Amino acid sequence: MNLNQVTVPALDVAKSVAFYQQLGLRLLVDACPRYARLECPDGEATFSIHAVPELPEGPGITVYFEEEQLDEWVAELQARGIVFDELPVDQSWLWREARLRDPAGNQLVLFYGGDNRKNPPWRV
């Protein structure tokens, strides 16, 4: 089994598409205003956005995007006007993470975990 795609809700799909394109994702399917699918620049994963009449309540989902050159990527995104809730910081679980929200309020974590993502010292 392989995780192929993640879909997030949005009130304004076009606005979310523009945001994710700034992150570097490439548009594959444009069915705005109800749906769009993008692909990550590395690997085979796709990411989609679907229109909802209202956003879910509560903490919602968190989507993680990994990039080895995390600090440089974050600086580049800031230069493009992307606002972060937290800039890159080393975490106790041995990942370096930055946090932000997309236009719909979905939480994103841009991170680099390297080998520790799948093989932390405490792996079972």
From TrEMBL:
Gene3D superfamilies with a match to the protein in the record: 2,3-Dihydroxybiphenyl 1,2-Dioxygenase, domain 1 (3.10.180.10)
Signal sequence annotation: none
Residue ranges occupied by any VOC domain in the UniProt entry: 2-113
PROSITE patterns named in the record: VOC
Name recorded for this polypeptide: VOC domain-containing protein
